[in-house]
Amino acid sequence: MDRGHRGITIRGNSAQIAFTYQGVRCRETIPMPPTKAAQKELVLKRQMILYEISTGTFDYCKHFPNSKKAKEFRKTRPDQYTIGEALKNWLQRNQSRCQPSTIRDYSSAIYHHLIPVFGELAISELTAIKVKTFLADVDLSNKRKSNILIPLRRVFDELYHDEIIDKNPLERVKNLPVSTREPEPFNTDEISRILRQLKGQEKNLIQFAFYSGLRTSELIALRWQDVDFNKNCVFVRTAKVRGHLKCTKTKSGKRDVTLQPQARDALLNQQVLTGEQNDIVFHDSRTNQPWKDDQAIRKIIWTPALKRAGIKYRNPYQTRHTFASMLLSRGENPMFVAQQMGHKDWSMIIKVYGRWIPQPK
User: DNA-binding among the record's keywords (predicted)?
Assistant: First the structure.
């Protein structure tokens, strides 16, 4: 064979085949003994590749299974690219774009739920009915089911917009309805009974929670530099989720909260304990170190206090509901309450807390 044959370059005991596939110039090197028979076979192989490309039957991985390009081109073949591969690649691409807690949730959804069920399927094999069957069979809350589908929806959205698939089966799968829990705020007597069960840092933390409306994840991330006694407010900028500091849940969550008298008193009492040479306001009194996560507060402080006070258990989030209902009951403007809570508008206030808004006479 002529060493200068078009599309083929001989290099000792190997040869490089060049061809164009999907508008991309490709070059693949394969081992080849320096014999005429091997060279003739190489010409036939290239001709076969060109023929398969022209007829739309070319399988890159079949011809070059160890090629890096083959793995990339598989992503454009919905009949070959598996859902498991797509999910893993999507997760890897988003590692630096998302908060660690978000990546942890996505990883759990992908590796514990989606891949075991759909991982071996080719992209083209997924149908809406298969997803609906999965949702019907898995024993989880509707909210959790919807969250599990988020990575799968994102992957198929990308595939559709990149024109790798002609239709997105997830568009025919609606999120399941989630029942909203009614707020169960604490009354002033219950608040007093709970606070009487606490002392020191624990009392300051829970008192501040009741009278500031901050989420527990925002409470444990609050810094002294975010407290302004002169302006009588705290600046909510960060939250601590699963040991990691992050921005507030939403853009509107970044807010200035006016200090109610009881909240101000709690901070003044806390300042004596952690105000000197400390960044974080509230500490775990057992270690005198900042709280690692909000779950520890529920187990160590909240639940035992309610039990000792003889009060029916409600989760710590009810301190937010208590704060909102107190402000509204005394006639505060719903727009002001929405801002204090970190809502982007007052529609949620009306929807969730409407019965605490005094009716005009």
Answer: yes
